Amino acid sequence: MSQPYGYAGQPPYQQQAGYYPQGSNPYQSGPQPPPPAGWAPQGGQPAYMPMPPPHIPPTGGNDAYVESGVDKSNFGFDTASIRAAFIRKVFILVSIMLTVVTIMTAIPFMSDDTMRFVRSSPALYWISYVTFFVVYLTLMCCESVRRSFPTNLIATGILTLAIGYMTMMICSFNNIISVLLCLIITAVCCIGIIIFASQTKYDLTSMMGIMFILSMVLLVFGMVAVISAVAFHVRWMYTVYAGIAALIFMVYLAIDIQMIMGGKKYEISPEDHIFAAIQIFLDIVYIFWMLLSLFGSNKD
Fold first, then answer.
1. Which is it for strands 65-67 and 266-268: parallel, antiparallel or unpaired?
2. Helix runs in the chain, H state only
3. Contact between residue 54 and residue 35 where contact means Cβ atoms under 8 Å apart
4. 20 to 30 Å CA-CA from 293: which of 4, 263, 270, 278?
5. Long-range own/partner contacts, residues 129-138 (CB < 8 A, 24 or more apart)
């Protein structure tokens, strides 16, 4: 995911799925921020720690991101109306995806039988994990799938359901008060980040070098934190890790928002509204997962 570009004085940075300047090689992948370790089982619960999916780099052709400062007339950002329509389409998709996940997450709290079934079915979690992995790679790597209707919407729907089930199972191990608290905190943080990223004149996309360094630190520290929590029952390291990870994903959300808005060093092609919606959706879901790791309370 990381690769240095040929700009003088520019540090290397972490490249998210599809982020690359024109003329560079977008297919090299590197380390990703480590995924959170799910939750730590307590009080007689099964020793099961599902791992939420990491961000996956594309391995095929991807024209989703272009470099600002070049002729973008071929990318459809030549008029404000086209850009506004693109932004509107992205946020409508993100809203629908988040609504589906929220409804799925609420289902176990409405029925004790459903709650017991969800908590005792780790195999379904891993099926959802694999489904997400395959569909996400397909959407990121195959432009024909990502840009063809209705295939792109069907694939996005499958990905949303997979993430929804994973979130539902993670939340089922926490009480409803802590889940609602984390949901409110996530909503407030994300709204604030979106407003800031869309209004500030500072180009957050130029921070990718710093983000790469922070991601490398998070990767190493996350591995140590998970091993310490599982093998040595040292929980505080994982708490610190979750807090740092939440902040990093908030920065990624701000960067992705600016890439959708356009006018910065890097931006997303308006033809890739599915790609943009998935990136924003995953940023928000990761923030919620991390906050739940910090503030979640084990379900009795």
1. antiparallel
2. 80-106, 112-119, 122-141, 143-146, 151-172, 176-199, 208-231, 235-261, 273-295
3. yes
4. 278
5. 129/50, 129/51, 129/53, 129/162, 129/166, 131/158, 131/159, 131/162, 132/53, 132/159, 132/162, 132/163, 132/166, 133/53, 133/56, 135/159, 135/162, 136/53, 136/56, 136/278, 137/56, 137/58, 137/59
Q: What is the dihedral of CA 6, 283, 55, 63, to 10 degrees?
A: -50
Beta bridge partners of 13: 3
Angle made by CA atoms 150, 154, 160, in degrees to the nearest 5: 145
Q: For the chain, what are the domain ranges? A: 2-295
Q: What pLDDT, on the 0 to 100 scale, is given for residue 79?
A: 67
Kindly report, residue by residue over 187-238, the tens digit of the pLDDT.
Answer: 999 999 999 988 888 888 888 778 888 888 888 888 888 788 778 877 888 8
Contact 64, 268 (CB under 8 A): yes
- Residue 27 is classified by DSSP as T
Q: What is the pLDDT of residue 297?
A: 67
pTM score: 0.74
Task: Determine the pLDDT at residue 220.
Answer: 85
Low-confidence ranges of the chain (pLDDT < 50): 1-49, 51-62, 66-77
Burial string for 103-136 (b: 16+ CB within 10 Å, else e) reads ebbebbbeeeeebeebbeeeeebeebbebbeebb
Distance of alpha carbon 177 from alpha carbon 77, whole angstroms: 44
